[in-house]
């Protein structure tokens, strides 16, 4: 992808100093409308952790989006952006008691959990609230896979939901997550099937959970393109029909990356291009942003962003892409076979595309004395 | 290790909210004096990136320490702490031209480099300065190993040093780094030998480099203890004698972790203890600090901190230790066989020992809406 001369002026001139994440909130709004259309009738909760930029949250409130929050600060940001507390789900299964009380006091009435310990806190600090129990799910096929950190086994989930009801909570539903940037549309079905089994078991003991939260994970185009969102919606719709039949719960989803990633372009400057030996085929290209400045998802080269420069119409050659800190793990791509123009030079701007999610808030406060990533709204 | 009742009061009472990194600057001063005594006559440059806390820098200035800086902000911090510009080495081999000019304007006269491109910038923006060429070194044996991001091959280093002289710079010396938390005292020798060869080659063409910067990497006690610093000093001293004989350059070292790590204790609160299946032997222990809040060096479980609670005199059991964010990679120790008291409960304080280095500045600005790690000085 080659920038036009005008874009270059914007990038290095009007833009000001790099690194800078430029967010186009209209793109986020379009992405919301696209996923809402694909999942007609579903409750769409934007995962605020992907990018909590106030202007972006305001645009999503206006578009009718709901929100998945993970902390006090995210609750405050959503409410400040005009969201109703009823549109908020506290989707993080691990919370301090004070955080639950804080959310409850502000009107939040839907909480995730996956353990007896967490349930006790919700009983104590958010009495009568709706709770959604998170199931352990396989995240095979995801570029940013999930560990066993969240979610419990089915037998435990059944016990926990019954326990929630006994303690005066509303056992509203079940949740699972198939891993972020999940490329395989078939990955949701096993958890939908599992959830349907648990719903039936719970119904036999008189409980009527009514929400299935199928999480996030919906992929975006990076260096490799994803299927259109309709492919994932169709696969989940088919799984819902197959496993729940006519007695379907409401579907809830929590897209974060899908809404925020395409809205962002990170403008970085080439600090140095070097070979470290006369035999090196690859050039080392050092940018002024790296793993500690916002590109944390390049850990293990998991998320591979597309790059654009003003010189992309010339011949290209292999590079190793590294960040600006004096830390030697601050390397983005060493094995992923990236190529950049042979004419690229120090001072040039490299645009890192699709960087609207999981970047700005991941940046360190000041590792090596480099300031955090700046965001600019267009 | 068990806290006394008094320590517990301090930890959870006077300390205020967790997570909080408590830094004892006197410990940092002691560590400086210890390493300065072990490396008698060497120039000790504290690697500011390890912990740039102003009070800590002031204590080191008073103790007579020099500084290794990696950015404008670190230069400003050192000068504000009372350091002389002559005591500063800009040890980061990759800098923006403006950063070199900034350093030069403030009196810095010693710069690292490892490529022709960087050399050109130093010639242009720091004329006449001393330069130290960084060699590629093996970091085998280090807990936080270095990649090939920094350092060039010996033949290139020779050419670069000659080129530096031709362009009016002072080819002051060579540098290498054996990897951080390097436990093996024998790891410095191969690079000392290599540097001695290069010194001799340069002397044959009339150059007289006078500094060997043996970098940092000096290990501290974490869960596993390191050898005393005197063991590393003795090994390096022996290598210097063996390979340089009587015609020895001045030795320069850049300890960061060695000085800062033992000065810090991170106080964290247990947010939740849970089992996620009835078959789980290990408990999941979720703290209010994790990989995105300052414990970045637990990536791949590389740095394994010692833990202390008030309940350590009771029976212990296996745990998986995870952080507070809703990100499933935010796990510190899953395979490292950590154990914590069976009586541990949510709300308890866990002290993470030896956390003075590479923690506070690694913390994210606000991932998941959690504020950055707070530092408190004692």
TrEMBL record, chains A, B:
Catalytic activity, as annotated: L-ornithine + H(+) = putrescine + CO2
Enzyme Commission identifier(s): 4.1.1.17
The UniProt record lists the keyword ATP-binding: no
GO MF annotations in UniProt: ornithine decarboxylase activity
Cofactor(s) listed: pyridoxal 5'-phosphate
CDD domains: PLPDE_III_ODC
GO cellular component: cytoplasm
Pathways involved: Amine and polyamine biosynthesis; putrescine biosynthesis via L-ornithine pathway; putrescine from L-ornithine: step 1/1
Keyword Lyase: yes
Active site: 326
Name of one Pfam family that matches: Orn_Arg_deC_N
Single Gene Ontology BP annotation: putrescine biosynthetic process from arginine, via ornithine
Annotated ranges, domain Orn/DAP/Arg decarboxylase 2 N-terminal: 30-261
Keywords: Decarboxylase, Lyase, Pyridoxal phosphate
Modified positions (N6-(pyridoxal phosphate)lysine) in chain numbering: 49
InterPro entries, alphabetized: Ala_racemase/Decarboxylase_C (IPR009006), De-COase2_N (IPR022644), De-COase2_pyr-phos_BS (IPR022653), Orn/DAP/Arg_de-COase (IPR000183), Orn_de-COase (IPR002433), PLP-binding_barrel (IPR029066)
Family stated for the protein in its record: Belongs to the Orn/Lys/Arg decarboxylase class-II family.
Name of the protein in question: ornithine decarboxylase
